[in-house]
Amino acid sequence: MNSSQTSFLPFGSAEAVQSYLQQQHFDRFSPQAVLFDMDGVLYDSMPNHARCWQEAMAKFGLKMTASDVYATEGMRGVETIRMMMREQKGCDISDEEAQKMYDEKARLFALLPQAPIMTGVFELMQKIRALDMQIVVVTGSGQRPLINRLLHDFHGYISPDKIVTAYDVAQGKPAPDPYLMGLQKAGGLQPFQAIVVENAPMGVRAGVAARIFTIAVNSGPLPNSVLSSEGAHLVFNRMVDFCAAWKIK
């Protein structure tokens, strides 16, 4: 790769990019968009989600630990609930039944104070925009208040047509569908024309399955090795570390 292809990438990532190209059999890496997960990436919201998931599922006789929440973060809520029902109750339920259970989790979440924007996100977006790259959000959430908050908080960076929600795809993370849809919303890009930024194993798996260069920012309690084992091409401990590493030459 020549310098023009790598000058805007995180410092020290040339080796990771070369490995990615070899794995995917691409002959170039020319990102035109960054596809961000929302919870735990744009917002420091995972502690709130963990609390609400545990409290809501307990009402339906399901046990969910904080680690379970982080391990399944990024999946569509109804898919998480259906999986837990199969594992803990040995039965299958419909999306409609799971949605009723998820609605209770959403109700509890709405009662909590808003989670803060992740430190370093605005600075990173400024760097991305300075390179004339697109910003797309790919979330497993379908809660309208959260989407509205995205548009308010990141006005000028994120637009409605550049958001993928749970309702845009038949299969959520860890399937590649959400990130493939993100490529479409970015103008029909190819995988080598984007970067995924994730924080959770299921999201990393989805980005990798979509054949996109995937960066993990570990904002939860799981060790970095969990994210690396899912195929993350780079792992950072905090968003500010990732932002600081993103150099524009």
Which keywords apply here?
249 residues, alpha/beta, Rossmann fold, DNA polymerase, domain 1, six-stranded parallel sheet, 6 strands, disordered N terminus, sugar-phosphatase activity, HAD-like_sf
How would you characterize the overall build of this protein?
With 249 residues, this protein is of the alpha/beta class. The protein starts with a helix and ends with a helix. It has helices at 3-6, 14-24, 46-58, 66-72, 77-89, 95-111, 121-130, 144-153, 177-185, 201-209, 224-229, 239-245; strands spanning 33-36, 134-138, 163-164, 194-198, 213-217, 234-236. It has 2 domains: 14-44 and 117-245, Rossmann fold, CATH 3.40.50; 46-111, Orthogonal Bundle (DNA polymerase, domain 1). 47% of the residues lie in helices and 10% in strands.
The separation of the N and C termini measures 16 Å
Low-confidence stretches: 1-8
* Helix coverage percent: 40-55%
Biggest β-sheet, characterized? 6 strands, parallel
Organism: Hoylesella saccharolytica F0055
GO molecular function: sugar-phosphatase activity
Pfam family, one: Hydrolase
Keywords: Hydrolase
Question: Short description, anyone?
Answer:
The chain has helices spanning 3-6, 14-24, 46-58, 66-72, 77-89, 95-111, 121-130, 144-153, 177-185, 201-209, 224-229, 239-245, and strands at 33-36, 134-138, 163-164, 194-198, 213-217, 234-236. It is of the alpha/beta class. It has a 6-stranded parallel beta sheet.
